[in-house]
Write a structure and sequence with these properties.
Mean pLDDT: 91
CATH class: Alpha Beta
Largest sheet: 9 strands, parallel
Number of helices: 14
CATH superfamily: Metal-dependent hydrolases
Low-confidence stretches: 1-23, 403-416
Structural class: alpha/beta
Strand content: 5-15%
Radius of gyration: 22 Å
Order of helices and strands: HHEHHEHEHEHEHEHEHEHHEHH
Number of domains: 1
Shape: globular
Number of strands: 9
Helix content: 25-40%
CATH topology: TIM Barrel
CATH architecture: Alpha-Beta Barrel
């Protein structure tokens, strides 16, 4: 058996006995155990990057951001209150077993904070993530660049990255966007379950948006994010917003945790026309593992995740699909993908399909996202001569509930 596995490993990973430059695949006769070994080897060789994890908000909900009794390095399946929570799927031991090389931590604040203290809450969530990371320096480190992910992968540490979930936390301020980038944030999800004054979300709300998609100020925000190198995430945004972003952005966009609308027809998922146009933008859809997005029901399995992955691949191409499970932000996960330790099971199952080469699976795991990240950095460098935007949101875009946010359209109004 050991000799058979060695021979299979040479076949799978293009060893010295296989010099063909063509993509290689696991034999269709391989057992699940053999495919699982191949999946572990693949994820040891090439980085797995997950686009979205909501653990930081659970730290606020469960512990009020007090970390004296919390350590990400512990087995949280044995710790209260995590062991009994359906929203708890993550700790460093399980991230290790899942071969996660890069994890985006979601910096989230609720929509109810919009027009109130959303910026303060956002800063507090960034603070708690940084303190969480600092408590386990041997295992994870804050990373702010694509090269940093690659370097830490070689060192054997997990890259922790920051993504802001919801533009309602920005206070519609270019200055806040720039400050967030300086703090290490590398993507911003334009909306959550509420419209911002400048972008429409995917939720059907009683209060209409300022514009069906992006307002002119919203488009200015996109261009400023391009200038900074901030990746633009349109998960939770309406299809109209996503289309406007595709027309406006000079860098690839991301869907950090979304699924395909044609397989589960909800506004939250991505329609086929946007999937088809993604290749031109060179962006990525990172597929969610939330049952409700996968099957429009409470139950799902690994194959449902694969169906969405395959649909994105068929509509956009194999270079434009990734993984954004959404663990710790959902209470229903597919059978076989119960937590962050189970990623090898997904890849082992994908290896049953001869249409997936090993190189394709490396792209899915993380290489596609690294390409997007690098391109965002290249656009930033190309725009280095541009000055920061000094635009402020127009008075007519301000929500009626926010009467004091910008009392004056400009400083000149102080003298009128």
């Amino acid at each position: 058996m050991q000799g058979r596995l060695v021979a299979m490993a040479l076949l799978v990973f293009g060893g010295t006995c296989h010099s063909s430059p063509l993509p290689v695949r696991v034999s269709p006769k391989a057992s699940h155990h053999e495919r699982l070994n191949a999946a572990h080897s693949l994820l040891t060789e090439s980085p797995l990057i997950d686009g979205h994890n909501d653990l930081p908000w659970n730290l606020r909900m469960f512990l009020h951001n007090k970390l004296h009794s919390f350590n990400l390095s512990k087995d949280l399946t044995q710790e209260k209150p995590w062991m009994k929570s359906p929203f708890s799927h993550t700790d460093l031991p399980r991230l290790r077993r899942g071969h996660v090389a890069g994890q985006f931590w979601s910096v989230y604040v609720p929509c109810e904070a919009q027009y109130l203290n959303s910026v303060q809450l956002l800063l507090e969530q960034i603070d708690v993530v940084k303190r969480m990371i600092a408590a386990s320096p041997r295992e994870t480190v804050l990373v702010t660049s694509s090269s940093g992910i690659e370097e830490e992968f070689k060192r054997g540490r997990i890259s922790s990255l920051l993504g802001v979930e919801g533009g309602h936390g920005l206070g519609s301020s270019m200055g806040v966007v720039r400050a967030l980038y300086d703090l290490g944030v590398r993507y911003i999800t334009l909306t959550h379950k509420c419209h911002t004054p400048w972008a429409e979300c995917s939720e059907r709300l009683s209060q209409p948006p300022n514009a069906r998609g992006l307002t002119p100020y919203g488009k200015e925000m996109i261009l400023e994010m391009n200038r900074l190198g901030m990746m633009i995430d349109v998960s939770h945004s309406s299809a109209r917003t996503a289309r406007d972003v595709l027309k406006t952005s000079r860098a690839p966009i991301i869907f950090s945790h979304s699924a395909a609308r044609s397989l589960c027809h909800i506004e939250r998922n991505v329609p086929d026309d946007i999937l088809s146009s993604l290749a031109e933008n060179e962006g990525i859809v990172m597929v969610s593992f939330y049952n409700d997005f996968l099957t429009c029901g409470e139950s799902a399995a690994i194959q449902d995740v694969i169906s969405h992955i395959n649909h994105v691949r068929s509509m956009a191409g194999v270079d434009y699909v990734g993984i954004g499970a959404g663990y710790d932000g959902v209470n229903r996960t597919p059978d076989g993908l119960q937590d962050v330790s189970k990623y090898p099971e997904l890849f082992a199952t994908l290896l049953e399909d001869p249409s997936w080469s090993l190189q394709d699976l490396k792209k899915l795991a993380g290489l596609n996202f690294l390409r997007v990240f690098k391109r965002a950095e290249q656009v930033r460098d190309e725009l280095a001569a541009e000055k920061p935007s000094e635009e402020i949101i127009p008075i007519h875009d301000i929500d009626a509930r926010w009467p004091c946010r910008y009392k004056f359209a400009s400083l000149d109004d102080l003298h009128s």
